[in-house]
Design goal:
Length: 82
């Protein structure tokens, strides 16, 4: 799931750059994709912790990764539709 999210972020960053990207551009895209992926998992941890608190469940990083994956899928769908 993380690899799919990372590849999606890379695809949209390289695609929006406009075709010819230098090696430094790819390096920046990789770095920014990793940063976005970590930030997305961290932000999606907030609703997971709140949900697990009310359900009396122990929060796990797997739930945050699944939520980030779902958020990425919703982003892809909205990109295609709009």
């Amino acid at each position: 799931m993380l690899a799919f999210c990372f590849a999606t972020f890379m695809y949209f960053m390289i695609g929006s750059a406009g075709g010819s990207v230098s090696a430094a551009g790819y390096l920046q895209a990789v770095g920014f994709s990793i940063l976005c992926l970590v930030a997305l998992v961290a932000v999606m941890s907030i609703p997971v912790v709140v949900y697990c608190y009310f359900v009396k469940m122990i929060p796990d990083i797997d739930y945050s990764i699944r939520a980030a994956f779902a958020f990425t899928i919703i982003g892809i769908i909205s990109e295609i539709v709009f």
